[in-house]
Structure formats: structure tokens, C-alpha cells
Amino acid sequence: MKNFTLKLSAAMVMGAALLGGTAAAQSYPERPVNMVVPFSAGGPTDTVARSLAEAMRPTLGETVVVENKGGAGGTIGVSHVARSKPDGHTILLMHIGFSTAQSLYKNPGYSSDSFEPIGLVLDVPMTIIARSDFPANNINELVDYIKQNPDKVSLANAGIGAASHLCGTMFASALGVDLLTIPYKGTGPAMNDLLGKQVDLLCDQTTNTTQHIKAGTVKAYAVTSPQRVATLPDLPTMQESGFEGFEVGIWHGMWAPKGTPKEALDKLQSALKAGLADKAFQDRMAGLGATLLPERANPEALAAHVDQQVPQWAELFKKAGVEAQ
Question: I need a surface site. Which of 32, 95, 164, 172 has the fewest CB within 10 A?
């Protein structure tokens, strides 16, 4: 009888533990989810995050709060998430810089192994733009002006490893010139100085430039996608403009800290897929020239993409002579 009682008690304890675990899984999230954007407010990744956060809310049943932690090309914010408690209440929305920073910084503060991938989100083309009173009126004039005045042209970016830095580096390399590069703590302040005519050029995502191009507050020269962007039909592609092979698509992905429970990851992936299917989000992103990636909004696709991207960019930086900071 005593042995039976012990076995029964153990079974009851195990059952209670299983029920407790199930209850804990069902209760996620227990509070608002913090979506960290490793750049300042007002930039292109911030624009995506705020729209996506709202689209994910119904599935999660909790508010998704966007937190901007900019600096050092995004590595400050990414590292913050890597060190956060892995309970599903802190997630990261980051772009291609997640892969490139691992080559651009000697100690970025994280690696791919620091995270649990959730899924790819979308892809955004870049645009070459200038302050509204810049002398060049088209891409050919821009190329001629830069080659004749390389020491007089300033090129803004959102920091080492940011999308604007990558695109600007490729542009200068394609022209064979060294431009005066001015890094900021995010694309928001870089764009503000371009609008204020404090800097000359910026290569930035359509999610941040479309409204300014349409308003005529900046001059636009080309897009970096293989085809023209439907929302900016008058802008030629870089390849059309004579830059063979110049193609830059800024993909975005979502991650959670390493060790985040599977139940939370599954719920986050479901919320991401639902967000990408949200009509308001789709319309908002289409209007900004972004391409959604619902078929790749899963951990396997994001992990494979990063594994392919890290060595690819490392090789490109090596050829371009870009040294780690």
C-alpha cells in the first residue's frame, strides 16, 4: 500500500506539473511584447515595426510595444535583445545588418547563435537620393558630378552596418571614388539633415524615402531593385542606369533570445504570419515599395538565409577593403 501511495503521489505531482506547463504555455503572452528596433525612431525599420506590431496584436492578444535602441549600426539594440530574458516578451526586428555587422565589427556583441529565428518579414529596395537643391538632376548627371567633385560630396548613412551604409559603400565602390561619409545613429536623423540640406546624398529604403520623393523634398535618381518599383515608376533601376549587377534588397527578419520556449516561438510565428496577411499592413507596405515574404516567415527560412548571407557579405567587404571596426 505504501509503495502504491508513493507511485500515486508521484503521478499526481507529474500531472500537476504537466498541467501547470500547459497553463503557462496557454497564458503566453502574459503582458505586452516588446519589439526592439535597433535604430532611432522615424527610420525605415521603425516604420515597418510600428505597422507590423499593430498587425500582430490580434493574434497575440496583447499590445506589441516598439522600443528604439539605436547606435553602432544596430549592434547596441541587437545585443540588448540577445541578453534579454528568453520568455517571449522581448523580440527583435532587424534587417540585413544582422548578417553584415558580424563582419563589420570585431565584437558586435552577438552571433547568429544568440537568437531563436522566428521568420523573414519583407524585402525593401533602396533609392539613391539627394538634397532637393543638389546640382545633378538625373543619375547620369549625378555620376558626372561626383567624379568631377568627389571631395565636395557628402554621403550620409545610419551607421556602420546599416542598410544605408551598405548601399552607400557599394555605390562609391562602383564609381571608384572615396566620398566623405557621415554616419548617424539612425536613418531618421540622417534624413533630417538631408532635408535640412546639411548633407548631400543618402541611399535609403523606399519605406523611408517614398513619401519624400513624391513630395519633392528630395531628389531621387534610381532604385536598387531588379525591376522598377510600382510606387515610383519614373525612377530607373541602377542596372538600367549602367550599373551592371548593382542590386541591393534589404530583407527584414524577426528573432527572439536564445532559449525562448517553443510555445512562445510558435505563437510569435503565428502572429507574424497573421500580420503579413493583414490587409492594412499589406496595403501600407505595398505603398512603400516593400515585398512581403509570407512563404518564408518561418524559423528554417530565416536561419538558412542568415547562414548564406554572413559569408557572402564577409567576402564582399574583404574585396572592397572594408575593415572591421
Answer: 32
